[in-house]
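Crash report, auto-generated. Payload:
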Amino acid sequence: MKTFEKNLKGATAYCRNNPKLVGGVSIILALVLFWLIGSLIVSPARAQPISGLPDQPPSLKYLLGTDSNGRELLAVIIVGTGLTLRIGFLAGAIGLGIAIILGFLSGYYGGFLDIIIRGVVDILLTVPALAVLVVIAAMISGVITLNLMIIIVASLSWMLPTRAIRSQVLTMREKAYIPMAKISGMNNLEIIVKELIPNLLPYLAAGFVGATAAAVLATIGLEALGLGPQSLPTLGMTIFWAVSFSAMLRGMWWWWLPPVIIIATLFVGLFLLTAGLDEIANPKLRRVV
Amino acid sequence: MTIVYVLKRFGYLILVVWAAATLIFLIPRLASERNPIVQRMGQTAAAAGVLSEGVEEMKKAWEAKFGLDQPLWKQYLHYIRDLVTFDFGYSLAYYPARVKDQMMNALPWTIGLFGMATLISFVFGTLGGALLAWPKAPRFLQYLLPFVLTLSAVPYYLLGLVLLFLFAFTTGIFPLSGGYSIGIVPRLSFPFILNILHHSILPGVAMVLAGVGFWALQMRGLMVIGLEENYITFAEAKGLKGKRILFRYAIRNALLPQVTSLAIALGQVISGAILVEVVFGYPGLGTLLLKAVSGFDYNLISGIVFIIILIIAMTTFLLDLIYPLLDPRIIYHRETR
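Recovered output after restart:
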């Protein structure tokens, strides 16, 4: 575990020179705090329909107004931020898990498996993910639950991390410390867990953020088409309801603008995180921005 | 360009389209035990509120008509045969209409908007990104960077919503939705084309603004790495003019990975385009997809998804054909990736 500690120490020291990473982490943390503190102050129950009068503009009673079903929008975006973050992070974690398994199988063991995995990744990367997800989500009979949504979006968020991990494993496999470890009697699994994964940490972190970003993008895209958890006030579903109730034409800016701002902030945060992690993983970029 | 290369790429095109088509065929049959037609019939029956007598016979008749009573492999063969002839059957939600006709009406809108927007954002983004990395470029470009960074992170359709609010709802400069004004006769005339352009500007701008950032950032990264190469130093030492170094040495080399990622990014771009259309009520494939989803029109959904995948695969194929023209090394070396 020494390498891990060293990596961690190096990373904290490096943070001072990497404002993008710091910025990204702060934005994501701010959103998490917004959700945590928000749910303490505002009861999540008020995000349900008929918790207030419908179509109310922002006032002292309803800070961000209400929508046409009487949901209070302040509560909606607080709960929605939590739900969307949860979908994103869990789907990202599942995506990264798949990517680690496939990436190592493909890069470390190679051979026939490598050809198959590479082929599948290449083909799936060409196919627009949203299109396939639409087919999956549209075919699910009954209500889409939160967990189901996580699985749906996770099912197509693993390709890019798989590719990245595979190519890193390919280069690392050639490093001198691998034969060294073999001579010292480590088996393949031990080498992967003790030698490769610690060295891959920056890439795994970048892969996690990448998979999370892909998952959030897919969730909000699907939800904007109405293919999300209909009974839950996620950010994407809020946009869907706002568009289908023509909130904009009716001048109800408080319905669609807050979720747009939160989603945009979330994407900027994820983007800065990716850029920051890229700089760690790819030192050549350090002086770029 | 060698024949082998073209054939190989064409084979890959067929493979991608076949794999995607098989996915579209299998997913609904794995996801639910009920077949889509019964589900749709149930919805219609519930909406009409009639007695459910004779539903069983109707179901049998429909299943026979759509071939759903046959074994899976036979259905699959029929499905592939239909796809090859571009026959997607009838729309379930708008029954007498055929899926093909509906898509043919929507397709030109999507290709026009999506094609133009992608082209413009790629060209401007690539040039802008190159200049951002170029030390002799005007200073003011550097100040655009944070702006570009932010734009590239925000999805197209959210930007679309904001633009819609600012330029259509509040100021009324551009129309709120649709592809052309209601009441105008759709025919090939100057006012009609002007009307279409007027309607296309906002969705187009939303896509270009978000797209430019993505391409500029990526190009900037490629350029910064490229500018450190020895051939740039050598070109400078030879006393070549700055413009010549920029265009012939730096941009030309950075362009290759940029075109590769264009092929990869197309899928994302078209997913964004679908949602932009939904936001703007633009009469393309995206809006049609929304209608199909809300009407549970399985045939229409799978038709649209297939066409989208086909467009992407064909564009990737074309890019693959252009690629050797940009990078002559490709023909002589076997792919070692």
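Post-recovery validation: The longest helix of chain B spans residues 242-280.
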